[in-house]
Amino acid sequence: xTAMGAALGPGTAILLDNLDIQFDVPLYGTxxxxxxxxxxxxxxxxxxxxxxxxxxxxxxxxxxxxREQMRNEVTGTEKSPPRPGLPPLAPRSEYEMTNLDASMxx
Length: 106
Prior knowledge:
Layout: H1 2-17, E1 20-25, E2 29-34, H2 38-57, H3 66-75, H4 94-104
Antiparallel strand pairs: 1-2
């Protein structure tokens, strides 16, 4: 991937150097698209595309052991590490755990 970027980057810059376009954008003014600004516009467009793809396709993975850890914290079977200067953690009520289980199992 590094070698491909090292080869495509300068090659793309050479292709963009041949462009010399200017257009008017309302409320902004004249935009110049040339060899100096082209790489920035190209990367900006690619990052916007990448962000949209990630927003549409990313799914949070299931975290293993999360439910068991929360149950251990509530029942007190697992001691939490000491927190200097802070009060001890209060265990959650059964009502909170029921709502937690319901929200984790849609």
